[in-house]
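thought: fold this chain, then report.
action: predict
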Amino acid sequence: MKSLKNLMPGEKAKVARLVGNGAIKRRIIDMGIVPGVEVEMERYAPLGDPAEIKLRGNHLSLRKEEADGIILE
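observation:
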């Protein structure tokens, strides 16, 4: 298993679980990133932060520390 932060642009994967607690985890869940959902890495900003992902037809931006807590299958 790897984290969302290690996904290359164009790759797709399913969310296996979320790591962490508090406000960051709550924000990720509120955005719809929950176990079982498929995400696609769109691109990274020039300096690598933030990353843009595609989720259920929507585009979301996540910081590295947020993406690191999303474990993929």
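thought: worth noting. Helices lie at 23-30, 64-68.
final: tokens above.
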